[in-house]
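Researcher: Re-running this chain for the archive, since the previous output was lost when a drive failed. Same request as before.
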Amino acid sequence: MTPLRLVSFALLGATLAAQQQVTLPDNHYFSESNLQLNNVGTTAWWRPTAGRMQILYEGSNFTGVTGPIFITKIKFRGEDGEINLGGQVYTGVNVAVGSTSVTNATMTNTFANNLAPTLPATTTMGTTVTTNVTVAPSVGSMPNNWNIEIDLVALGGAIAFDPTSSEPNFLIDITMPNAPSNAAPLSLIAMANTTGGSTFIRGAGVTTATPGSATGTLSSIPLIVGVEFAGTGGFNPVVVARNEVYGGACGGSASSFYQAFLNGQQWDLNSGLTLTPDNPTAPTFYTVSTGAPAFDATKVNATANSIADDALVTHALGFTHAFPGGSTSTVVASTNGFVWLDPTMNDNQFAGVVSRLLGDPVTGSTAPIVQYSGGRYALYWHDLNMSKNLTLNPQAGLHVLTDTSGGPGNAVAYVTWRDVAEFNTVGPSSGVTPITGHTIWNFQCVIYEATGVVEFRYGSMPQFTTSSGSTLGHHAAIVGFSQGRLGGLSGVNSVDPQSRDLSIEPAFTTSPEGSFGNIGQTAVTTPVAGGVQYNGRLFAGQTVAWNANNVPPGSLLGVQFLDIAAVRPGIQFPTITAPGCMISLTPTALAWETFVLPGANVTGSVTLTIPAGLDGVDLHAQFLVLDGLFGGPNLVTSSSNAIRHTIGQN
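Model: Regenerated structure tokens:
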């Protein structure tokens, strides 16, 4: 088929690609990948002591730049996904940038040799300028914001540079004669560096803690560098290729609901959630609505019930709390942001994994035998630390209590994470040495005896959700509810409702647990398949198709739709969508691929190849079952959630 609307969409994208900057190296991932989960950054360059560094990147990294250009600014960023208050100041820093014919292979550990190499290699450096360098806060995005920026124009150190000349490679020389100011309790963030080695990234560097030393340590994984310039080529701004799941799926019967946040996705649930049962004593479903009362900082104990890492706190509610599929008089709260509704649970895994939420058995140091995952409320299932902010608030940590001041039948239970921090906040020894104040988060689960209502309340929370640790397959955070495994270890998991946008979509109801879940969809790309969370991301050269799973049995016609616009919240209207279903694309969406009598799992075969020049354009995808065309009250009888692809750089 001819994607007519996508032709105009390509032309639109070409107008968006203004040319102003590059990120070095050009092949370093900007977004989530398996490798990134294990990359902890470095303090060997911008370090907590005085020092010197040289960084070289070969001209081939200046994507699309034919030269000459005028380099105006160089930038550095903290490790992706890390939050840091910054505030450190390096005084009297000497900075020079230049061009060289030295390559990553011929760079040496002697600073002077790289500046005045043995002929026929040559280096031409610009004016050395002196400045104070202030480390700005890092917001924790993926990629992180640039937290060190050096304006070469303002300082008089800008240079002309041509990556196609006889000196095609870019060289940076920085000396920090003094250690940065670093008043307690702040800690300098580890800076984002490369992976893959000098041959892969076409770059190298030398660094030392002794400013006057003639030599340093040669490194094949230098810092990532942002370069702004006047001229043609490059990107402005550099747009990250990333995906986001939105909308809400339907088609099955799921008692669970959740939103699985991706690395670097903005946190947008500060208004909270309210779960209202249809029957307080024997509920069969929840009505989930946005909005809850403000976080109540008074509902804490004199001291926290736990400030330990990966710990559990068992609490007798003093009443029986019924939820869809079960009931309990005892909850088990985890320091990692969730509440077990089964008192036999003893797993406190920090990694938010959808299959575990739905009931997968887990093993580990805290569960020496295989144990299923039971019901739970996930307020902010994330790798958290309870003790990092104790010097700011001695009550920091996990608190559990039942307030009986309302009299018999009106008790209210509070599970409160008070002034807690992210485990992965970078410090001298991440996760071991408490570093105060970089992340201060507050949220609580409130359970009402009389009504069975459950509230997810949020106070101060992160701007971005980020992933820590190296467990593949886990999300940055999971928010939601599930019965977990039904029937114990020998039973079956709860069916998958699919991740949905809990902040934007209107109030929805869960369902009595059925035999299959809602429709989900996955983007499948080549040659880069993508990470464990994002599936296929779209950037120039990628070819993509879309698969669907959990298509309801007996479906007659499935259609994969694409669009360059979205409807948020989705369209829900009698005669158009079945109850609980929504269309998250516009009425002019393109029918990309059609499936007659689709099975439970649909594999897309009509592919789209992403051309260059589309950075910043969004492409939306959703799978709909249109059995209403063959009779029935509604056109759309089931639908997947939707994927928003932002086309950009890898």
